[in-house]
Amino acid sequence: LSADGTVLVIGANSKAHIFQRDEAHAGVWEERTVLQEEGAESLDHGFGSSVAISDDGLTFIAGAPESDIPGDAQGQVLVYTLDTVNNVWNQVAVLDGEAERDEFCEFVDMSADGSFVVVGSIGNAGGGTNLNGSVGHVRSFRAEGGTYVPVGPDVDGVGTISQEFFGSSVVLSNDGAVMAAGAPRFNRAGSQSGEVRIFNLTT
To answer: Model confidence over 140-157: pLDDT tens digits?
Structure first.
């Protein structure tokens, strides 16, 4: 939901539905656009499983965690911006997961102005040795030159063998300078007690 509560994006059935509140007609919500990945095979990618929109309602992201481009269930995040002249949403970037079975983008968030994006990847092996992955990590991106580029190294889960699912939840501050990410199965305080880790962006 945009900051002023007039633009809403909903992911459902491998599509992203964008609604806008029409103040001229008693605040009625109208569906303005339906977006989906190109290609029939994309119907199995889970597009829209996670969505986030900027405060001004002009940028939004949608995740496809089961996307097999470039690898099996590697996952992708698609970034869109609104052409306010033609009232058309244009795809401006595709953000890829690191490895197969990452389920990249089950969880996403973005800064208020849409210039920073964080993406959780619970299937990633992180810095660990677990052959089944699921240590998890978080990748960060920023807008640059009309697209989005990685910001710093990935933030990996701290487990070396355990499946802590770091990145199961991610949230970013309005200015993109502070991020929190959850690891619901981490065992620091007991079996699967979980924890949240908070990070500051350094430049």
So the answer is: 999 999 899 999 888 888
